[in-house]
Specification:
The chain is 89% helix and 0% strand. The chain is mostly helical and 19 residues long. The radius of gyration is 9 Å and the shape is rod-shaped.
């Protein structure tokens, strides 16, 4: 569960970075 949250946050950060 924790790992899933971390991956979600990571993808969000990457998404913001690509903007």
């Amino acid at each position: 569960c924790l790992r899933s949250k971390e991956i979600k946050m990571n993808s969000k950060l990457e998404y913001l970075r690509s903007l």
